[in-house]
Amino acid sequence: MLEVKRCGENPLLIPENVKPSREDFKVEGVFNCGVAKYKDEVILLCRVAESVKGAVEGEVRIPVVKKIGGKDEITVLSLKKAEHPELDFTDSRTINKMMRQGKRTVYLTSLSHLRVARSKDGIHFTVEDTPSIFPCAEEESWGMEDPRITQIGAVYYINYTSVTENGAATSLISTRDFETFERHGIIFAPENKDVTIFPEKINGMYMAFNRPVPGGIGNPEMWLAQSPDLIHWGHQKHFCGISDADSWDNGRIGGGAVPFKTEQGWVKIYHAADRNDRYCLGAFLLDLGDPSRVIAKTEAPILEPEAAYETEGFFGNVVFTCGCLVGGDCVSLYYGAADDKICRADFSVSQLLAGMKAI
């Protein structure tokens, strides 16, 4: 049986640990971080979600990035609830409108950017005072979310969800030092997110999991894509769907941590949610030469929201990972809890593999 040890210092980071990017902003959450080792430090590239302070009762204030005078600047929109009966304000994360084809998100209540946190021991982190990467109007007017970091050689490739009113896409940035960053633009058009890139070429091609969200036929499920250069992706193949049963993975399924290599195959930790939006984590073991072939998988979640810091928060009953570090037989999994804090859990690679069911 897999023994998962939650860090005794959990949560490692909470909103109060993060300095707002503006005086009129409030940090709502620091969560869903990409993870990397750089020199002698553990780097977390955190999603920091901020809302606008000063709203009066019955008002919602919305931060949006726009191009003004050739510069990217934040514009704050104000909505009076009483003036917009057509809008649904019940979700703390979004403002929605019911349309003939279903619910449509028309605003996000917070704006997310990416910020570096550093640690010598992987537990005690210092968050930088200012955003490391701030949204640009063209690609991320509604924010940057859920970064994953894949190291290939000396370069760290950061893919993340880039959100505008046109949908949630996936974009790519690279860095060598987590101080300067190069943008490479959108690599998966909306709506496609939860992308995780393998850390090496397989049969001469880069590979990545992605999660398109069909608007009509189909469900939010995992696909595999190939690329010669990390920019142009194709050869899409459906990988795994949601469960038909009344189970923990019958709502949606998507990429979690970047895959890591073992002698038995690639280990892919993923997330899934049920129809009540309760998020848990599971794992696949994939063939080294053909990651579309599943060798084994976990049947029950390896981590599910149970601790108070996971069940209660900005959006409760959520554990959601974007990255892990592997040292010997130990996996250190960093994960977002309840959409507002960062935690860590450790477990054994050999125990994980032994507990999987062969397919």
UniProtKB/TrEMBL annotation:
For the keyword Disulfide bond, the answer is no
Please provide the record's keywords in A-Z order.
Glycosyltransferase, Hydrolase, Transferase
Q: Name one GO molecular function term.
A: glycosyltransferase activity
The superkingdom listed in its UniProt entry is Bacteria
Similarity section: Belongs to the glycosyl hydrolase 130 family.
Provide the protein name. Putative GH43/DUF377 family glycosyl hydrolase
Per the UniProt entry, what species is this protein from, by scientific name?
Answer: Hungatella effluvii
